[in-house]
Specification:
This is Cytochrome c oxidase assembly protein 15. The chain is mainly alpha-helical and 413 residues long. It is built from 14 helices and no strands. Helix content is 66%, strand content 0%.
Length: 413
């Protein structure tokens, strides 16, 4: 750093304009500068660069761009991990039917859980006024209520921790000047998406608390709002992970061949297919569609069940008919694993770096593991531990697809 700064400083200090930086005439020795040797500054003395920084109101010098990129990249990698934890915990909350146990939402007030017997009784009485207790859990005890309440409480508190993990370091990095202009816009978008995600979560929960006199079905949240809530979380996760990988992993200098171009496009399409398959899982969860046909590869005794298109209009079946929703999820899963298999064999025909090959192999292994988990979950009538592992596997598979895409990204000129 001294070698880079010293020649410009020689010219700068030797010019007349340097007199603007000091209160009066002074020798080079008083400034703490010696061109022939390194002379330590006395207490209370400042070098020219530090003095300029202090006079301009900047008490700290920004990190070199590479070090700043590494710090921001590690932060976003941790943030993507917290989002993954929120998605997994939200899936477990849904599987244990705990999501409607907290019937109101307060940003600060609800952070303190009930502590006394009276407070727990009051919380339980609020829950008893809503459809889930009246229709499904009318014989629930206070001890059972505490379990589902704490499940939802932990999910909400984790969501607040995710928000702090994004917003507080973002403010710190911004103040330190470690964010480039483009990165500032991206970080603002991520922080805004975190806040939107929290509001969308409560909007989803409200749909399960509404009274529906004409329906005697089990109270559940809207599958549309559940898919929107999961989809925004996946977008937040993908954007954070992609940005962190782009900052942390050095880009390969790959020759721009036609084969590589096709491989890059195919990898992008496959990642989109994996994302769509994970999103369709929200409709499966929202409609309990995993419980309608617990057989594989056929659905019951046929490949195409008779009740696939029972709703009218036909498009309604895609989002509201549990049979069609499960059929679509199966089809998307099989298509995804087929595409990943083809992607792997295509990657073997292109000369790639070792790390890129490792990403392709990892993606293939994750795909077949996820298929095995999905089939097992279906055949065993959706046990909570196995179903939660299957939901976590979708995030792992999406991460593998993003990693491979990142490895194949175009080297900037």
């Amino acid at each position: 750093m001294q070698r880079l700064l010293l020649p410009p400083l020689k010219a700068f200090v030797g010019s007349r304009s340097v007199g603007l930086l000091v209160p009066g005439p002074a020798s080079r020795a008083q400034w703490g500068c010696s061109f022939g040797s390194r002379r330590p500054l006395r207490p209370g003395q400042y070098g020219t660069i530090t003095e300029v920084a202090l006079q301009s109101g900047k008490g700290t010098v920004p990190l070199p761009s590479k070090a700043a990129e590494q710090a921001v990249g590690r932060w976003l990698l941790v943030c993507s991990g917290t989002v993954a934890g929120a998605v997994i915990l939200g899936g477990v909350t849904r599987l244990t039917e705990s999501g409607l146990s907290m019937v109101d939402w307060h940003l600060i007030k609800e952070m303190k859980p009930p502590t006394s017997q009276e407070e727990w009784e009051a919380e339980f009485q609020k829950y008893q006024q809503f459809p889930e207790f009246k229709i499904l859990n009318h014989d629930m005890t206070l001890a059972e209520f505490k379990f589902i309440w704490y499940m939802e409480y932990s999910h909400r508190m984790w969501g607040r921790a995710v928000g702090l993990a994004y917003i507080l370091p973002a403010a710190y990095f911004w103040r330190k000047g470690w964010l480039s202009r483009g990165m500032k816009g991206r970080v603002l978008a991520l922080c805004g998406l975190v806040c939107f995600q929290g509001l969308l979560g409560w909007y989803m929960v409200k749909s399960g608390l509404e009274e529906k006199p004409e329906s005697y079905d089990i109270p559940r949240v809207s599958q549309y709002r559940l898919a929107a809530h999961l989809g925004s979380a996946l977008v937040l996760y993908c954007a954070s992970l992609w940005t962190s990988l782009s900052l942390l992993l050095p880009q390969h200098k790959l020759p721009e061949t036609q084969q590589l171009l096709w491989l890059r496009r195919f990898a992008g399409g496959t990642a989109g297919l994996v994302f769509l398959t994970a999103l369709s899982g929200a409709f499966v969860a929202g409609l309990d569609a995993g419980l309608v046909y617990n057989s594989f590869p056929k659905m019951g005794d046929s490949w195409i069940p008779e009740d696939l298109l029972t709703f009218s209009p036909i498009l309604k079946n895609v989002f509201e008919n549990p049979t069609m929703v499960q059929f679509d999820h199966r089809l998307l899963g099989i298509t995804s694993v087929t595409a990943i298999t083809a992607l792997y064999f295509l990657s073997r025909r292109v000369p790639l770096p070792r790390r890129t090959k490792m990403a392709a192999v990892t993606l293939l292994a994750l795909a077949y593991t996820q298929v095995a988990l999905g089939i097992s979950t279906l055949l065993m009538y959706v046990p909570t531990p196995l179903a939660a592992t299957h939901q976590s596997g979708s995030l792992a598979l999406l991460s593998g697809a993003l990693w491979l895409m990142n490895e194949l990204r175009r080297v900037p000129k």
